[in-house]
Amino acid sequence: MNFPAIPGPTELRRFFLVALFVSLACFLVGRVSLLMAGTFDNVVNVWWPASGIAAAAAIRYRGAAVPGVLLGSLAASWGVVPNDVFPFLGIGAALGAWIIYWLPEKLGAESFSFGSIRSVAGYCLVGMPVGTAVSALVITVALQWTNGLAQGQYWSTLWSLWLNQMTGAILLAPVLLAANIHDWRIHREVFKLEWLGVVLTTMAVGYLTLGAGNHQSWEIGEFLLFPLVLWVALRFSAGATTTLVLVASIIRMASSSNEYSWIGSDIHFLEVLSIQITILSLAVCGLLVTAALTERRESEIRLDRLANHDPLTGLPNRTYFQVYLEHAISLCQRQGNQLSLLFIDLDRFKHINDSRGHEVGDEVLRVVADRLAGVLRTDDFVARLGGDEFAVVMSHPRSLRAVRRVALKIIETLAEPFKLDNRHYAISASIGITACPDDGTDANTLLRQADMAMYKAKLKRSGFEYFSDDMNAAAHEQLTIENGIRRALRNDDFAILYQPKMDLRTGKVVGIEALIRWMVPNVLGIVGPDKFIPVAEETGLIVPVGHWVLRTACLQWVAWHEAGLNPPIISVNLSPRQFTHGGLAREILLVLEDTGMNPAFLGLEITETTAMENPEVTLQVLDEMGRHGIQMMIDDFGTGHSNLRQLKRLPIDAVKIDKSFVKDILIDKDDAEIATAIIHLAHLLDLRVVAEGVESQEVAAFLKEKGCDEIQGYLVGKPMPPDAIKNMFGKKFLLEKSQMEMHFKDTTLLMAQ
């Protein structure tokens, strides 16, 4: 069984202070009301302000208000109400106050709000009527039990007390609860005129109702009360509406008192009922209209915020940013200032998403957004453009120093470590900076230029970079290459060259690597992969290009095999983008099935960095490939950041020593030791070793001495077309120990050492 927590000293102190404050308010207002009831005529008896105080306190302070209402009611009625009745008056008031806040909550209404029809209806149409009815019932039963009622007055007394308390609750409680609402303030000039109109109209209604001195004027004034309340409810705040309803109610009661005083008689019970119903209708209608309009305004605000703000960080989104940037550019041109746009991209954020999950990634983005908002000036504008991209717009005098300070401050602030789920994180960022009017005068141009500068900063790892005209030329060249790649895929302008790999122990050609080249007739000739592969990677075109290479290489191997040429293993490079694209294993298996190639003669090469980027995904793909007999190789080994534990888990068959370690292996001691260490490490892991970029017989001899299994490079053969490479199938190199001469059986390839 779960027991409620024992309140601490702070909660107890607040409880007693609230109870004391409420009891004092109920005592003062209740005592004045009881004294006034004996002074004025019966009109005043229909309105008991103390019930409004009790209802407002119960709604505002909940349980802490109930004992205050009890004590205040007892103190107010002491000496005024008969001794055998006054305890029940306090009990009834306290019980009614408790029901006023408890019952709506049980029915699902939220805490009282002028901006919710459900809340207003729950309290004004359920909580207050039931609570005041229970209070009136307790008091009436007490009067009946103590013989305080004349015969036949039970129901009229109950009805009178109930309407009395309910009218006071519905009139006074909203006024008191609206006392701290901020929209009482006047925000625009038109509202000032409307306030003046409301005041003048209220004064006119009061004059017609009270001071005109004839029945026709009184009817006109009463008729104007409803449209006046409706006007205020439509155009102003809940506080103004509730106050006007209170004033209108006082005018209405005073007018009835004046009317009956003219004819020298008491107000009839039915007239009292009419007054109370009129007052309650004014109050409830005004509150419901105000709630409906407030709900609509809040819905419009929420929709506007959803349309113009990022729901994750709360920052303005790309749409809002675009509008603001265009406005800021126009303002900058009119004032002659300089506007700077900072395009911010988080470094390696994808790694956090992939390794720790999107929930942690979202928390990181919130931290970044908070830090950006905290480091900038109040008149600077920061937005989230999407993903891990943010933008800052700042206006300042013509100087680059201010922008540089802000960029450095942003980088420094974001780099501070923070803790999420008991893990420490640190974020770095790359920033591209462009300025208006120096670099451009329209939003799209500035954003594109800042994006280019950011990419340069990311490549150089310099933190931030300013836009320059050279970037435009590079961007134009990149766009030309991108469009050219798309045309080449459509027009079949790509070609594959094949470079052989030789086994150092047997001298046989044991494999060939498929290398793509781009044939551009009558323009550039052959475009090397160093030109178009980075563009294809960045734009995602590497996925269809890689698929074309794989399919073309498989078809070529099948053609050689069907021609009886006994082709060796053919290896194809896989890009990092193909791994992240998804469905890679299924795509490869479909190509093998479609072309009819033997999977045992297909090799796939991935770079060390790609393999370690997401080891779990890499392991899943390589496992699937290994089960079908496909050979897996790590390309450019030694240039990335391998985790040996992860490398041991991967089902790979060979590693390729990068040519940067092979080129100077005979003259650079460090390169020689690195290559030797890679060979020994690979053999310990039961992996074959292929050395790339072997161009001399001496290097081949050194590698053979160190235990390298295979070599690839110009010494064996340059990349060549299919008709040339097929002549090397079935032949082998001989390495004469006495002469250190490498040649085919029939053809000498290189001179002796």
Task: Chart the SSEs and their pairings.
Layout: H1 9-37, H2 49-61, H3 65-77, H4 86-106, H5 117-145, H6 154-177, H7 189-211, H8 215-235, H9 238-263, H10 269-308, H11 318-335, E1 338-346, H12 349-356, H13 358-375, E2 381-386, E3 389-396, H14 400-415, E4 418-420, E5 423-425, E6 429-436, H15 443-460, E7 464-466, H16 469-491, E8 494-503, E9 509-520, E10 525-527, H17 529-539, H18 542-562, E11 569-573, H19 576-581, H20 584-595, E12 602-607, H21 608-613, H22 615-627, E13 631-637, H23 644-649, E14 654-657, H24 659-662, H25 669-684, E15 688-692, H26 697-706, E16 710-712, H27 722-725, E17 733-736, E18 741-744
Parallel strand pairs: 6-7, 9-11, 11-12, 12-13, 13-14, 14-15, 15-16
Antiparallel strand pairs: 1-3, 1-6, 2-3, 4-5, 8-9, 8-16, 9-10, 17-18
Helix pairs in contact: 1-2, 1-3, 2-3, 2-4, 2-6, 3-4, 4-5, 5-6, 5-10, 6-9, 6-10, 7-8, 7-9, 8-9, 8-10, 9-10, 12-13, 13-14, 16-17, 18-20
Q: Could you please describe the fold and organization of this structure?
A:
The chain is of the alpha/beta class and 753 residues long. It is 60% helix and 14% strand. The protein has an eight-stranded mixed β-barrel, surrounded by five helices. The protein is elongated, with a radius of gyration of 43 Å.
